[in-house]
Specification:
This protein is mainly β. The protein is built from two helices and 27 strands. GO terms for molecular function: RNA binding.
């Protein structure tokens, strides 16, 4: 039956402009969390399993291009077109630090040990902020050859990865010397770069190609041509046997890591897909789109029959977490009174 092959995603509404970045936390004692960046200037935190909204970080005055959570999901960071990178308390939603830049901040990343924040953007400068001494001036890594699009930490915070908006390639920087030690060559600019959970692979999306690189020896492991220009790709973290990619044709596709064969094609977004990310356990993956929605897709596709208990806000009865599990996150968060009331009413139904 055809209907058995149709995946039904959890649809997460809330953003009023395109969703341009997604980031999953590792699994914490409270579960795992998903943070989203949008051009509406308000990053949102959600329960990573159900997609349920937890809170919105309010304070940016321009589009937010990049978001991340630290290892424990206790702090969030965001980079914005308002020339700032902000660090937030992920339990209360309070702004902890605001780091001024001279131009748009396109990318940010917490170090693995959570003490440092890396930023990059239009200025062509990579900056490292010491969160233990937030008032101290940041350390500036050697000038980037182009406008920074993506950043990530590797090798237990010894190496920094960055890609540029206006040229191909991924640059790997030695944190101690601040110099480029390796460049992974690509024809088109790399719009998405992800270091796998086990530290083995770097997954890049450039143009209509998804590539996998050895994260320790830097050789090209696999290169797969995509059916359209893709903006983002993510490797399944548990087994590493498949990956997801999304781009201009509005579809979210799953591919076999080894062969590049298409396994699934998920339709539902009404605009180009800007970002895709696997959850930390690989049981689902999220996509963010120009249409302003986030969709969470189960790795084993749900059928229409399985999805009958799906609520309008994108939570599935079977995977609903208890209120206690996320109460620590929700308490104190700046939630609008009307939303509180709505949620209370929904809970009483």
């Amino acid at each position: 039956m055809d209907k058995k092959r149709i995946a039904v995603p959890l649809v997460c509404h809330g953003h009023s402009r395109p969703v341009v970045d997604l980031f999953y936390s590792p699994v914490t004692p409270d579960g795992f969390f998903l943070i989203s960046a949008s051009k509406d200037s308000s990053p949102m935190l959600r329960n990573g399993e159900t997609g349920d909204w937890i809170g919105t970080f309010e304070g940016h005055k321009g589009a937010v291009w990049s978001v991340c959570l630290d290892t424990n999901a206790l702090r969030a960071a965001s980079g914005s077109a308002d020339f700032t990178a902000k660090v937030w308390d992920a339990l209360t939603g309070d702004e902890l630090h605001s780091f001024e830049h001279k131009h748009i901040v396109r990318a940010c990343a917490f170090s693995e040990d959570t003490h440092l924040l890396l930023t990059g953007g239009i200025e062509k400068v990579l900056r490292i902020y010491d969160l233990n001494c937030p008032d101290a001036p940041p350390r500036e890594v050697d000038k980037s050859p182009g406008s920074v699009r993506t950043v990530a930490w590797m090798h237990s915070d010894q190496t920094i990865l960055s890609s540029c908006t206006d040229m191909g390639g991924v640059r790997l920087w030695d944190v101690r010397s601040g110099k480029i030690v390796q460049t992974l060559e690509t024809k088109s600019s790399v719009t998405s770069a992800e270091v796998s959970l086990d530290g083995r692979y770097i997954t890049t999306a450039d143009g209509s190609t998804v590539k996998f690189w050895d994260a320790n020896h830097f050789g090209l492991v696999k290169s797969h041509n995509m059916p359209c220009t893709v903006e983002s790709a993510s490797l399944e973290p548990k087994y590493g046997n498949k990956f997801v990619a999304g781009g201009e044709d509005m579809w979210v596709r799953v591919f076999d890591f080894h062969t590049g064969d298409e396994i699934a094609c998920n339709k539902g977004h009404h605009g180009p897909v800007h970002c895709v990310r696997f959850s930390p356990g690989g049981e689902s993956y999220a996509s963010g789109s120009e249409d302003g929605t986030i969709r969470i897709w189960q790795t084993g596709p749900l059928t229409h029959d399985d999805a009958e208990s799906m609520a309008a806000n994108g939570s599935v009865g079977q995977v609903k977490v208890s209120a206690e599990e996320v109460s620590r996150k929700i308490e104190g968060f700046h939630i609008a009174e009307e939303v509180k009331t709505k949620e209370k009413e929904a809970g009483n139904e």
